[in-house]
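Figure 2 data, in text form.
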Amino acid sequence: MTEHLLKILIVGDGNVGKSSFVNRYVNGQFNKMYKMTVGVDFSVKVLQWSDQEKVRLQLWDVAGQERFISMTRICYKGALGCVVMFDVTSATSFLSCRHWKRDLDSKAMLPNGDTIPCILLANKCDVAQRAVSADSIDAFSKANGFVAWMETSVKDNKNVGEAMRRLVQEILSVKSSLDSFQPGPQHSVNPQLDSENSNSRAAGCC
């Protein structure tokens, strides 16, 4: 059995649903109460990817508040993929995605120097009052190098698992091509953070 350890960042402005997204994906739960992330929340989820492959995801939910952004360089270290999220009812959070993507591209890189795979998620699509059109999101996604974009609703559990599966698929594809150029055993990223508990969760500063 091959096991892949993948560190994935979840970034975006505050109050767009990042923590709720992670909680829904890892624990299958939705909590209406908003609790601001301070620093970084860390969760683990294990996927049985195929008969021969297991994927252990380290999900790093990075605080969206401006005062925490200076901490992100060390948080980004070793990341192999990223979710950039905005609230489809907030044009401001959508515009911020350009900043998040540029910041990410300047700090998180694959061993060959390429940018890490990112998926763009338009959250809260269950709300009727949209502030961003699908055409705008599509054009922005293509112009800024995202592997894909999806509308999600954490509340309705729409496209949460599908979005992560699409991102993991892309990461494994990129990782496979990188590994073929680097013969020898592949070491886990941040092995000290590995955990046997697929629902582990810890809050703290990176």
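Caption note: Residues 185-206 have pLDDT under 50 and may be disordered.
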